[in-house]
Design a protein that fits this description.
three-stranded antiparallel β-sheet, single chain, binds zinc ion
Length: about 150
């Protein structure tokens, strides 16, 4: 927020005024002590979003959020208990218990293996776009300088 050169008040809009031979940016109150020349040009930085440029796309893989539910449903469908299921998957019983209670999420490679063995989707592929920031140009716009010359006499 610009401040008045004389009293230091913060104001959105300041006036250009000639006070005792010096041109200052002042508030309306201080402007009364001199000659108002016009409004202070306000420069506004604007961001012009251009068409985004995608540099590259990346496919990120991650274990599905509802992994524990998925795996339990598969096991129940096959009518196995956790121990049998663990044996089938060549995993420890305790690990399967943790998976199902959602206290452990398997590593990606493990999830991929389970995906193949159980024929269910346990890994999701998320597409990530890398966007070229150079495609977004920041410009400077000068607001119309509304010159209102008002000469006051005191
Ligand atoms: Zn002032």
């Amino acid at each position: 927020m610009p401040t008045c050169d004389l009293c230091g008040r913060e104001l959105e809009k300041l006036l250009r005024a000639e006070i005792e031979g010096t041109e200052l940016a002042v508030c309306g109150e201080c402007g009364k002590h001199g000659t108002i020349l016009g409004k202070v040009k306000k420069k506004v930085s604007i961001v012009v979003p251009k068409k985004k440029t995608i540099i590259r796309e990346e496919i990120e893989e991650r274990v599905v959020v509802d992994f524990s539910d998925m795996i339990r449903r598969v096991r129940e469908k096959k009518g196995w208990n956790q121990e049998e299921f663990a044996k089938f998957l060549n995993e420890k019983w305790s690990v399967v218990q943790k998976w199902e209670s959602n206290s452990l999420t398997p590593e990606l490679n493990v999830a991929r293996r389970l995906e193949r063995v159980l024929r269910v989707d346990l890994v999701e592929r998320v597409k990530e776009e890398k966007i070229d920031l150079k495609g977004i140009k920041s410009g400077e716009m000068t607001m119309a300088d509304l010159i209102t010359v008002r000469k006051r006499k005191f």
